[in-house]
Amino acid sequence: MKYLLLTFSLLLTHLLAGPGDKPADSRFTKITLDDDLNEPMELAIADDGMVYYIERVGYINSFDPKTNIKRRITKLDIRATGEDGLLGLALDPNFLQNHWLYLYYGDMVMQGDSYTNVLSRFELTETGLTNRVDMLRVPLLHEGVSHSAGSLAFDAQANLFLSTGDNTNPFESDGYSPSDDRPGRIRFDALKSAGNTNDLRGKILRIHPEDDGSYTIPEGNLFKPGQEKTRPEIYVMGNRNPFQIAVDQRNGYLYWGEVGPDAGEDGPTRGPRGHDEINQARQAGYFGWPLFVGDNKPYYKYDFEAKKSGELFDPQHPVNFSRNNTGLKDLPPAQKAFIWYPYAESPEFPELGKGGRNAMAGPVYYYDDYQASPGKFPKYFDEKLFIYDWMRGVVTTVTMDKNHNYQSMERFLPDQEFNHPVDMAFDRQGELYVLEYGTYWRAKNTDAKLVRIEYNEGNRAPVAKISADKTVGAAPLKVRFSAQGSFDYDKADSLRYEWSFTANGIQAKGVSPIFTFAKPGNYKARVRVIDSEGKSAENTLTIRVGNEPPAVTVDWGGNRSFYFGKNPVAYKVKVQDREDKIIPPGLIRTWFHYLPEGEDVAGLMATGEMTFKGRTLIEQSDCRACHGLDAASVGPSYRAIAQRYDDDAVDKLADKIIQGGVGVWTQEHAMSAHPQLIKEDAAEMVRYILSLDQSSPQMPPQGSVTTEQALGNYVLMARYTDSGGLLGQELLRLRPAKFPASEVDSFSKGVSKRSNNGGGFTMCFNEDKAWLKFNQLDLTGLKKVTTDDFTPKLVGILEFRIDSPTGLVIAQVPVKGEGVEVISAPLQALSGVHDLYVVFEETSGGINIWKRLDLRTIEFSR
C-alpha cells in the first residue's frame, strides 16, 4: 500500500509538472542492462517495452525490462567488411500485430559484379527471423572506400527513412572535398554518389513500405517519380556519412548527425577545415556535400592533376561537374547545417568543446507523448533535441524556439560517463535507453553496453560501489569484498547489501563479505544496494581465478626513499611466480628514470607508467577510440608504433598528431587531426608511446646505478608479465635528501599550501598541533634533519613523529620566531619504512591564519 501511494504521488507530480528548474543530475540513475557486445549499432523499442538491438557482426538481440532477460534472437549471415555489416534496425509501426522488423546490412551475395547493402523486412517469431523480403538494394564500390551510414527510422505517417554513406575514399584529398573525377579515380570522387541525383549513396532515402514487401514514394521527396536522371527515393542528398538519424514524431522533421571531413585547418586555396554537423530537414533538400560543409562554407574547385584551385563553389547554384555523375548537373540550392563544429572549439557552439568528432542525432523529447511513470524524464526536457558525439562521449540537449529554430544547448549529465554512445531512444515510459559502443572502434569491447537512464522524482536509487582486496589469483582464491563508499542521496535511508559471486542467487549480505572461489574461471561478482524504500542499484566486478600474479621485488643497496649525491647503488630484481617456475631474465623489464622537478611523480607511482603527462593527455583525448596498448583497432597499437620509431621521430610524430594523415599504416582509415593540441603536449604524447617499446634496450635485472642530479626524482621500475598475462611490478621513488615541504602527501585542516609567486609552494601552519604527512618513507640510516622555515613571531617545536600525529617522536626542531631559520636536530635511529608526520607544537606567539609558520624545505642527512 505504501508503494502504491508513493507511485500515485509521483504520477500526480508528473501530471501537474511545469518546465521548472533544471533537475539535479543526482536524480538520474544509469543502469547497465547488457554488456560485452560486439559493435552495437542501433536499437528500437516496441510499444510493449521490449528493446531490440543489433551488433555489426550480425547479432540481433532483445531485452525484456519486465524480467531483465536478454535473448539472442539470431545471427544473420551477412557481409561485415570495411564499414559495412548489420547497420540499421527499425520496427514496423504495427509491430505488435504483424511482428515485422526492418534491417539494413551488407549482403553476402554479389549482384552482378558488385556487392550491395540491402534493406530487408523480416518477421519475428518465437524461434527467430523468417519470411525475408528484400525491399531495396544500394550498389557499392567495395574495396578502398569508407562511409556506410545505415540508420533506419519511421515517421508518424509510417514512412521509412534510410541513411546511406557516400562510399568514397576520403584519404587522398588532404581532408578537404573529395571530388577527384580523373579517370580511374572514381573511389575518390563523392560527386559520383553524394552529389549525384541518380544514385542512392550519400543520401537519406524516404519510402513507404507496403504490406506485400514493395514500397511507394511519399509526396514531398526531392524528385518526383519518373523525373529523368533522378531517384525518387531521395529525400535528402549531399551527405558524407549520416550515421544516426531520428524523426520528430510530431512535425516530421528529420534530424541526423553528419560525420565530417578531416582537415584540421582552413586551407587558403582548398576551403574550410573539417566540421561535423547536426542537421534538421523540414523538407526535402540538398545539404551540400562534397561542395560545402557546415553553414554552407564552400570548397574551391580543385584540379587534382595540376594541383591548382579554381573558383569557390556557389551554394545557391551548385553544379556537379564530375565525369562520374550520372544525374543532373544543376543541383538544388545547398541547405545550411543546424549545428556545426570543428576539432577546435566552435565559435558558434562553444558548449560542444573540442577534440575528435562523430556527431549523431537522437530524439526530440515531448513530455506529454509518454506515459506517466516514476522513471519518466521531467518536463524540463520538453521539446528538447538530444544530440551526442560518439568520439567525445558527451550527450547534449538542444533547446529550440516555438518555430523549432536553434536557441541554446547544455550538457546532459556532464559528470556521467558515456562510453562512445552510438544510439539512443525513449521507451513508452519516458526512460532513455542508450547503446554504448565501448572503448575501441572496430573491436569487440567488453565495456560495450545497453544502458537505461531513469529519472527519480522522489526517493532516488542509491549509488553502488564495489571493490575487492584482490581480483586475480590461483584457486582456491579467498577474496574480501567491500561496498564501502556506496551512498544514498536521501540521507534518511539506511542501506542493505546483497551479494552474488558465482550464480544469480544471493550468497552473502552485509557491506564487507568474504568469499572463496574454489575453481578456476572468470566470475562476475555483483552487489545490489537497497534503500529502505526498496529502491536498488547494482555494480559488478570481474574476478579471475586460476593464475597468481607474479611477485616482483627489488633488493636495493641504499635508502629506498632518498638519494645522496653521486653515489652508485647496487640493485637486484627478484621475481617469484606460482605458475612460472623458471623466470627468464630477459623477460624482466627494468628502467631507471630521472624525472625533473615538476613531473607528476605521484601519478607515475600510481599507474606504473613513465612519461605520465603524455599518458594523461592521451587518456583525455580521443586516441583510445582508434588505438589500443597491445591490440590494433582502426589504427596500430601503441606498442607497434613504439617498435617502428625511435626518439628521433618525436617532432615528426607530434606534427602528425596535430595535422592528421593517412598512408603509413593503412589506406582505409585516416588519423584525425588534433589542431587543438599545442606542439609541446603532442610531443609528450609521443614520448609516452615510444616509452612502451618492450624490445628496446632495458637495464639488466641486476647491476648498479648512479644518481647524478641534485634535484628532481629518480624512479626505478621493475616489471614481469607471467605466462598467463598477469603483471607484477615494483616501483622505487628516490627523492633528493633535501626536498620541498610542499611534496607532502596529505595535511591536516590547520595547514594550507601557499604559492610563492612563481617560486614553488610553502606549507603554512596556522593552527596548533597541525600536521603534514609523508607516506612510507625509509628512515633507515638517517641521523639528522634540517628544516628551512620562516616566522617572525611564533615560538615552538616542529616534532617529527612516525605512524600517526601522536606517534613516537624521533626528532624535535626548535622554532625560535626569528624570521628565516635553518635549524638542524638529531634523528633517533630507526630502520624500515614509516609514515612520517611533521607536527607543530606552539609555545607562544598566538598562531592563527595571519600569524603562521611557513615551512619551506626539509633535509635528511646520514
UniProtKB/TrEMBL annotation:
<feature type="domain" description="Cytochrome c">
    <location>
        <begin position="603"/>
        <end position="693"/>
    </location>
</feature>
<dbReference type="InterPro" id="IPR013783">
    <property type="entry name" value="Ig-like_fold"/>
</dbReference>
<dbReference type="InterPro" id="IPR012938">
    <property type="entry name" value="Glc/Sorbosone_DH"/>
</dbReference>
<dbReference type="InterPro" id="IPR008979">
    <property type="entry name" value="Galactose-bd-like_sf"/>
</dbReference>
<dbReference type="InterPro" id="IPR011042">
    <property type="entry name" value="6-blade_b-propeller_TolB-like"/>
</dbReference>
<protein>
    <submittedName>
        <fullName>Uncharacterized protein</fullName>
    </submittedName>
</protein>
<dbReference type="Pfam" id="PF00034">
    <property type="entry name" value="Cytochrom_C"/>
</dbReference>
<dbReference type="Pfam" id="PF18911">
    <property type="entry name" value="PKD_4"/>
</dbReference>
<keyword id="KW-0349">Heme</keyword>
<dbReference type="GO" id="GO:0009055">
    <property type="term" value="F:electron transfer activity"/>
</dbReference>
<dbReference type="InterPro" id="IPR035986">
    <property type="entry name" value="PKD_dom_sf"/>
</dbReference>
<keyword id="KW-0408">Iron</keyword>
<dbReference type="GO" id="GO:0046872">
    <property type="term" value="F:metal ion binding"/>
</dbReference>
<dbReference type="Pfam" id="PF07995">
    <property type="entry name" value="GSDH"/>
</dbReference>
<dbReference type="GO" id="GO:0020037">
    <property type="term" value="F:heme binding"/>
</dbReference>
<dbReference type="InterPro" id="IPR036909">
    <property type="entry name" value="Cyt_c-like_dom_sf"/>
</dbReference>
<keyword id="KW-0479">Metal-binding</keyword>
<feature type="domain" description="PKD">
    <location>
        <begin position="462"/>
        <end position="545"/>
    </location>
</feature>
<dbReference type="InterPro" id="IPR011041">
    <property type="entry name" value="Quinoprot_gluc/sorb_DH_b-prop"/>
</dbReference>
<dbReference type="InterPro" id="IPR022409">
    <property type="entry name" value="PKD/Chitinase_dom"/>
</dbReference>
<dbReference type="InterPro" id="IPR009056">
    <property type="entry name" value="Cyt_c-like_dom"/>
</dbReference>
<dbReference type="InterPro" id="IPR000601">
    <property type="entry name" value="PKD_dom"/>
</dbReference>
